[in-house]
Amino acid sequence: MEKNVVHKYLRKNKKFPHIWCPGCGHGVIMSSMLRAIDKQGLDRDDVAVVSGIGCSSRTPTYVDFNTIHTTHGRALAFATGLKLAKPDMTVIVVMGDGDAVGIGGNHFIHAARRNMDLKVIVYNNNIYGMTGGQASPTTPSGKKATTARYGNIERSFDICELAKATGAVYVARSTSYHVQALEKYIHRSLSKKGFTVVEAMTHCPTTYGRLNKIKEPVAGMIYQKDHFIMKAAWDKLPEEKREGKFPMGEFVDIEKTDFVSKYLRLIEANKE
Amino acid sequence: MDKKIEFYESWCKGCGICAAFCPKGAITMDKMAGKPVFDEEKCIACGLCELRCPDYAVIIKKKDKE
Amino acid sequence: MSVELPKLGGKFIQMEDEIGSMASIIGASIGGLKSMTATSGPGISLMQENIGYAVITETPCLIVNVQRGGPSTGLPTMPSQGDILQARWGTHGDHPIITIYPHTVPEIFEETIRSVELSEKYRIPVILLLDEVIGHMREKIDIEKVDKNKSFKRKTPDVPNEWFFPYERNSSGVPAFADFGEGYRYHITGLVHDVDGFPTSKPDQIDAFMKRMFRKIDDNLDDILDWEEYELEDSEYMILAAGCVARSAKQAIRTLRDEHGIKIGLLRPKTIWPFISSVLIDKAQDKKKIFVPEMNMGQLLLPTQRFASSICDILPFNKINGEAIYPHELVSFIRRNI
Ligand SMILES: Cc1ncc(C[n+]2csc(CCOP(=O)(O)OP(=O)(O)O)c2C)c(N)n1
Ligand code: SF4
Ligand code: SF4
Ligand code: SF4
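ok -> structure tokens follow
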């Protein structure tokens, strides 16, 4: 018997609990995704979940859809081929921050530019979790990682700004604390056609947390609660008060014809 | 309100998130066992603990819904 | 292809890089399409990680590599046979692979069809290795010879969803491929997996999986291997060569036989990986010497030595200056060395 919405979509032949560390935010993002899929009323045979490599990319293992765990950074390129082959399939791509905008950054900007109809969920824990906490392109300046022991001297990427600039039709950010908003944004992205990005901020107690004195899972969520501010409030916030804080909410929601729809038209026009 | 809290102990990793953010203080962490203890009296079935549990170990059932 | 594919309802996409190209054709194949990509030089190095992914996930696809000279950017559009061993061992980890090496334009046409069939049949990426010389050549193709109605279809499962094991160990060694969207919701991963498709770290399951991957190729060599024998019947000497070098070898053989009375023939592997070892061992028996001319420093030489060095002498001829090997060079080299 199904216990609840989330349990309904978990693979019966997988062992639970999952491999994620106690209190890792990844589990919360996965359940938000499942609730959003359920709300959208998708037939699970017509849903694919594609990931790269990393803790976050273990998501497909657990969910009862057509699932592919690809190579590090390349999920979007695999998903692009799948979408071309199966235009009617809802293709969800889950990636870690390192996966999506580090090693996979090139695929990210080009999938966005092309407007491939892919539903991206980036699990952003600001670090390479699986390999033990190396700095990622989203590790904030000054924060610590095993490869940035003295504090990160690099600038970090804003994934939502990047998605916006490269042409995504829907861009939103929430956190593992703000679960209801997260589910709402993923649900909205599933209802859109085109390249959508939901950046889900997640806490990684084991590496990022340990190195940056937010060791307890609860502390990670409190941090999110205190530091992420809804866009409307953020816009009114004076510059000096924005320091150390981040906006969340829906940043882009526009309509643009996606690549595959255009290609199908091209076939129609040139068929022999 | 008529409700039922279902808890899967074997799935719970004892992170304490459910307890920390329960708006009614209906959950306390059993220090020895490292697992949450639910006070059904205080619970208002808001479902937040279910939504935030990273291990899908809590289910809040509202009886009136069934 | 960008012109022709849409006319036939096919799809073409120019990806951002060769890593993406390789990934996207695997994705398309998982979606049930026959898919291919093509590259040269650095591009084939970029594809290697995902070629390994196609191997371990047993996803059919075709990779065309028109070889160019040198490591790195090397010698753009100049001929070389420098990728023969990379085609075999380019991706990391122990793995089987099929590589086909045609030597004329019509043969590229036929072998492309055969490569796709082998790939679909054995669920393995196939590399079609070409020489620049032939890649840029124009020759006649008899398209009428091709049976257009014959199109190889991959074996798909016919069991109910709950009985489906995506990587089952059956007698053929090749599990049926469930295209995504057909109701079999299963998991594909580049981690070593058990019959159910989920990652495993159990030695007995790893062993069974790895061995099946090799067995499906090893048990079907009769079907996979192909080669040409030219003037071998009465020959005392043999040239072993592939691709454009085999064309020069054929001409050299004409000269050596007609003008110098040397009984020499050619053994030309069309399938170079897996290697035609049993054929070579058989043909080497009555030979005085085997010549192995290549546009590299001895890549086909290695398997030739491995299987025939105890049977007869083997002599390499290597040229790596960005030029093809000419027949007259072979004629004088062979005359000097017999
Ligand atoms: C080409 C390649 N380089 C490196 C690795 C090793 N690796 C595995 S996971 C990972 C980092 C994952 O970090 P992220 O994408 O942020 O996901 P997280 O684990 O934090 O969820 C790396 C570098 C790999 N698998 N492949
Ligand atoms: S290392 Fe971090 S991201 Fe990975 S499972 Fe553990 S807490 Fe989660
Ligand atoms: S949130 Fe879930 S895993 Fe964490 S203590 Fe509560 S029930 Fe256990
Ligand atoms: S449902 Fe709400 S009130 Fe009840 S225990 Fe969970 S968080 Fe507390």
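The interface with chain A takes residues 6-9, 11, 13, 15-17, 19-33, 35, 49-50, 53, 180-183, 185-191, 196, 198-199 of chain C (CB under 8 Å).
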